[in-house]
Design a protein that fits this description.
Length: about 300
């Protein structure tokens, strides 16, 4: 039984704390008071949370750098990053941010299809832990409960790009369904979205097998087809002509795809990578009419 600290009390942080508490002693650190935690989970302050062997960090990507600067994590920490997205200000990938503070051999990244609500119900799922240190990925794999099958991989950049990009395609999926464009259109969107994600990821060294597996296609299909996905719900609301500020206010949660669409567009323009779906999603978020964007994609 390992000692694990989970940083972040959002839906995903709580779900991971629940999952890991099935076999381990878990502390959770959150700015807000959390209710109805499992018996093997205790809420502590940041100081008490730093003495565990394993850290799970579920902090929103755009807040991650500032958080790492403010928290003096032990240099030998074994960290599983559960954040998905791309930092807008610096167009930085999550691993870029972490490796400015922690040695890459102590870092692992969690990827794959996993709604927090279903994890909280102990429903079965399969995930991938990517790390440049395969032994560390396997070590984290032993900590998961029986209802989660954890694979180990080494494609850090591919896994994190897939996890970020699928949120953008999920917004497009919500727009597609909200406009009632039909199943043919939805299938075409997801297929082309997977191609686009792969093209972007391969440019930065990601492996095609990652995009065709749990980290890519699996997470993409899950997130793009259900109102359990925050990003999908953002797309539905955009299709109704609602403004993004109003949508996010009503949502009351972080939808990483909103900022990731902008970041991908910026990066793509810089490197001349063809990412038309991400470009149009970013434009719709900024106020472009969704049907006009559809015509641009069809042309």
């Amino acid at each position: 039984m390992a000692n694990i600290s989970v940083f972040g009390g959002g839906a995903w942080g709580k779900a991971l704390a629940f999952a890991f508490s099935q076999k381990n002693q878990v502390k959770i650190i959150s700015r807000k008071k959390l209710e109805n935690l499992s018996p093997n989970i205790i809420q502590v302050d940041i100081t008490e949370g730093l003495d565990s062997e394993f850290f799970i960090i579920a902090i929103a990507t755009n807040a991650l750098r500032l958080w790492l600067e403010s928290v003096n994590l032990p240099k030998t920490s074994k960290i599983l990053c559960a954040s998905k997205g791309i930092e807008t200000a610096n167009s930085a990938f999550v691993s870029d941010i972490y490796e400015g503070f922690i040695d890459s051999n102590n870092l692992a990244y969690l990827c794959g299809p996993s709604f927090a609500a279903e994890v909280m119900q102990s429903l079965p799922c399969a995930l991938v832990v990517h790390s440049k240190n395969l032994a560390l990925a396997n070590e984290f794999g032993t900590l998961f409960p029986s209802f989660i099958k954890a694979y180990a991989g080494t494609d850090v950049i591919g896994g994190e790009i897939a996890g970020a990009y699928k949120n953008v395609i999920a917004i497009a999926g919500g727009i597609c369904d909200g406009l009632k464009l039909g199943r043919n259109a939805k299938a075409s969107l997801l297929a082309r979205g997977l191609v686009e994600m792969s093209r972007f990821g391969e440019f930065f060294g990601g492996k095609m097998e990652t995009f065709l597996g749990l980290s890519g296609a699996g997470d993409l299909f899950l997130t793009s087809n259900s109102t359990m996905s925050r990003n999908y719900r953002v797309g539905l609301a955009l299709s109704q002509g609602k403004k993004i500020d109003s949508i996010l206010s009503e949502l009351g949660e972080v939808a990483e795809g909103v900022i990731t669409a902008k970041a991908i567009t910026q990066i793509s323009q810089k490197h001349a990578i063809h990412t038309p779906i991400a470009r149009e999603v970013s434009a719709i978020i900024e106020g472009k009419d969704a049907k006009t964007s559809l015509n641009a994609l069809m042309d």
